[in-house]
Predict the structure.
Amino acid sequence: MTEAKGSGSASGPSRVATAYRKLKDAILSNELPGGFQALELEIADQLGMSRTPVREALIRLQDDGLVDVVPRRGMRVRNVSIDDMREIYELLYCIEATAAELLAARHLAPDSRELLLLEQANDEMERSLDRDDLDGWAEADARFHNYLLEFCGNDRLAKTGAAMAAQCHRVRLLTLRLRPRPMDSTEDHRAVVRAIRNHDEESAHNIQRTHRRRAMILILDALRRYHLTVV
């Protein structure tokens, strides 16, 4: 997470973006786990920055639902409970289903960039599973879901979905090796892409909703089975 000391010469917005990205990556990878607390000054020292960009980055992370900014106590990474995960996923599978439906309604050309990138993400998921690389699979899977939101044509929906996905990402990684091998995910994704390609809005919506809801059930089951009620 440490930033080179020379970064102070960068512009203000650039420093905020850098601090935000580094802190968010550390939270999503569980390098900074739920319950972690630190003062602004401590974080600024770790990043080699002044407190001002760090403070602004923490406010953005609080808006994302990843941290709480505590006056005179810096920040605390939010814990995620089973009930939190259920609520987040209930929102997420509705949002992503709508995103898939909107994508199908765009009537994309067969050789469109959007369809190409969705298929490339699926291909990488398959290759990762073939070499037993679950981390690579998870990265490609997250990219597919991000593309659905990014390409749907509704910025507000995409922003809300991205915030929900970020809040559950830590738990997805934590339970990655505690869940059944994700053999069906690529098949589900291919079915969603076929529906989008065929401009079948209802099928795109229903397939994506079922896919994300199934993922929710598996993750909640893993949290309960291994008593990982809070992370």
About this structure: The CA atoms of residues 51 and 64 lie 20 Å apart.
